[in-house]
Every structure is written in structure tokens, then in C-alpha cells.
Amino acid sequence: MKLQPDKSDVQTLTAHGPGWVAINNERVDSSVVVGSHGERFAWDCTRFEDLGPEHFAQLASLGAELIIFGSGKRIRFPKPAWLQPLMAERTGVETMDTPAACRTYNILASEGRHVVAALLIEEAPSGQ
Questions:
Q1: Is the residue at 125 inside a domain?
Q2: Alpha helices in the chain (DSSP H)
Q3: For residue 91, what are the domain limits?
Q4: What domain count does the chain have?
Q5: 13-17/20-23 β-pairing
Q6: Is residue 85 part of a domain?
């Protein structure tokens, strides 16, 4: 699905599909963290089952007001204990499927909010 955000000076998620997202029209085929203040790095996980507390602790150091966790093709919630570092920093966390996380990130980033999307990109089914 192609997303059409208003003109923005921040990184935007311009499209998504099974097994990928596009950041400023650049296709990314693996899990990624992208932020409205220029943050962008690979997120070392390929399945929800690969996630652990270290993945969320990594996000706590970014200083964002909100982390949007895109949990893959369907909504799945991280264990509450994994979110402790974020709560200690008073960083909000919202969980949704990855397509919804892309749309929500764009809206909040375009409002000038310091938002970070941590997107779980699962392998596309064969033939896609």
C-alpha cells in the first residue's frame, strides 16, 4: 500500500507491503527503528519470538516522547517487564500491527512530535 503524507521535513514511511516498508521511498526488508528526529537503524529481530527486553531497553535511550511498536502482521503485545526501561524514562509506548504503526508514525511525526517507530518486519509469504 502506498502512503501519501503531506510534505514533511522528517523521515516518513512512504509505503509498506508484506515483508517490507519504505522510508522516504527507500525499500527496507528487515526490522527497523525510524524516528522523527533522524533516528534510523536496523532492529535485530525477524520474528516476534526473537524479541526480548534488550530490544526495548535500546529504545529507551532515544529520548522520544512516544515509541510506536509495530508488532508485525498482527497485533501482539510485548511483556510488561520489557517496557520498564521506557517507563523509567517516562516514554509512552503504543503497540499496533506494523501497517497501522506506519500510518500513525507519519501523522505524529508531521505534527512535530518526537516519535519513534520500532517496526517488526516479518518475512513475506513465498511468492510476494
A1: no
A2: 53-60, 84-88, 98-110
A3: 13-119
A4: 1
A5: antiparallel
A6: yes
**39 vs 1, residue with greater confidence:** 39
CATH code of the domain in which 68 resides: 3.40.1230.10
Region 38-57 average pLDDT: 96
Give the β-pairing of 66-70 and 20-23.
unpaired
Give 94's strand partners.
68
DSSP state of 2: B
Place of cell 514533511: 8
**Which of 61, 71, 122 is CA-nearest to residue 94?**
71
Residue 124 lies in a domain: no
In DSSP terms, 13 is beta-bridged to 23
Return d(Cα 51, Cα 70) in angstroms, integer: 12
Instruction: Encode pLDDT of 70-101 as tens digits.
Output: 999 999 999 999 999 999 999 999 999 999 99
By the 8 A CB rule, do 10 and 35 touch?
Answer: no
